[in-house]
């Protein structure tokens, strides 16, 4: 499969209000919710792309004000190792891997040469058209 954009994540101050905002204005479906480290992610989808709304409960209101907005995006590929090698060969750097990422929603996080964060995933994200359920 050709690499495909399938995930965008934004940090929000009010998770429930922003979930309702995107659902009602753009007819997105609620695809799930999960606890992610120090916060919560609500996932919405149009059936092709996953929009993750991230709220970090360990942040102050002022910190959330600074963080609000686009956080990262994700690209689904068939062979993560192949694309990691490509990224690193062209100046991208490994950033980190989320605990439990082998179960879904992200594989590994990288930064491009200018510092923009992105995910490389073989599984895809909940609610996307290319989602592959991981083996138990």
Please write out the topology.
Elements: E1 4-11, H1 15-26, E2 29-36, E3 39-45, E4 50-56, H2 61-67, E5 69-76, H3 80-89, E6 93-96, E7 108-111, E8 117-121
Parallel strand pairs: 1-4, 5-8
Antiparallel strand pairs: 1-5, 2-3, 3-4, 6-7, 7-8
Short description:
With 136 residues, the chain is of the alpha+beta class. It has three helices and eight strands.
Notes on the structure:
This protein is of the alpha+beta class. Helices cover 21% and strands 38% of the residues. The chain has one domain: 2,3-Dihydroxybiphenyl 1,2-Dioxygenase, domain 1 (Roll), CATH 3.10.180. The two termini are 23 Å apart. The model has no long low-confidence stretch (mean pLDDT 90).
Cα distance spanning the termini: 23 Å
The total of helices stands at 3
Give the overall form. Answer: globular
The average pLDDT is 90
CATH C-level category: Alpha Beta
The order of strands across the largest sheet is 2-3-4-1-5-8-7-6
CATH superfamily: 2,3-Dihydroxybiphenyl 1,2-Dioxygenase, domain 1
Strand content: 35-45%
CATH architecture: Roll
For this structure, the quaternary state is single chain
- Tally of structural domains: 1
| H-E string | EHEEEHEHEEE
Give the low-pLDDT segments: none
Structural class: alpha+beta
State Rg: 15 Å
């Amino acid at each position: 499969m050709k690499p495909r954009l399938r995930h965008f994540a934004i940090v929000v101050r009010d998770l429930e209000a922003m979930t309702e905002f995107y659902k009602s204005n753009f007819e997105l479906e609620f695809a799930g919710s999960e606890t992610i480290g120090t916060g919560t992610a609500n996932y919405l989808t149009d059936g092709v792309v996953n929009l993750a709304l991230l709220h970090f409960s360990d942040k102050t209101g002022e910190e959330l004000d600074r963080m609000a907005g686009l956080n990262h995006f994700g690209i689904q590929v068939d062979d993560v190792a192949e694309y990691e090698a490509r990224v690193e060969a062209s100046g991208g750097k490994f950033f980190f891997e989320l605990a439990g990422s082998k179960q879904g929603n992200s594989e590994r996080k990288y930064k491009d040469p200018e510092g923009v964060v992105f995910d490389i995933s073989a599984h895809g994200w909940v609610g996307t058209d290319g989602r592959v359920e991981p083996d138990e």
